[in-house]
């Protein structure tokens, strides 16, 4: 089992957007298009919409009726908090994957 096996398509889109924001490919205030991103990532608009909603819940995107989703303006403190949270989550994922691989390794030894 690889780390990518744990992530859903929605999670991968969330990570894609996170990375685009923090590498400054997506700038604060920019409007995100469900249809464009869905086409670019070969995903359904529904999955992209769910990823946008998850990012809105996390405080990364804002939503205004009839205007769509926009990237928020992050302060340096916000960015540090987000990276800290991601490190904890990703470390947990690595631990889960490592345990699963170790269990499977033992099976093959017997």
Using the alpha-carbon principal axes, give the shape. Answer: globular
What's the number of helices?
Answer: 5
Number of strands: 3
Calculate the mean pLDDT score and round it.
82
Terminal Cα span: 19 Å
User: Helical content, roughly?
Assistant: 55-70%
Which range does the strand content fall in?
Answer: 5-15%
Largest sheet: 3 strands, antiparallel
N-to-C SSE string, H for helix and E for strand: HHEHHEEH
- Rg estimate, integer Å: 17 Å
Uncertain spans: none
Structural class by sheet pairing and helices: mainly alpha
Strand order, main sheet: write it out: 1-3-2
Describe this structure in words.
This protein is mostly helical. Helix content is 66%, strand content 9%. The protein is built from 5 helices and 3 strands; from the N terminus they run H-H-E-H-H-E-E-H. It has helices at residues 3-6, 9-22, 34-41, 45-57, 76-109, and strands at 31-32, 61-64, 68-71. The protein has a 3-stranded antiparallel beta sheet with strand order 1-3-2. Strand 2 and strand 3 (68-71) form a beta hairpin. The protein starts with a helix and ends with a helix.
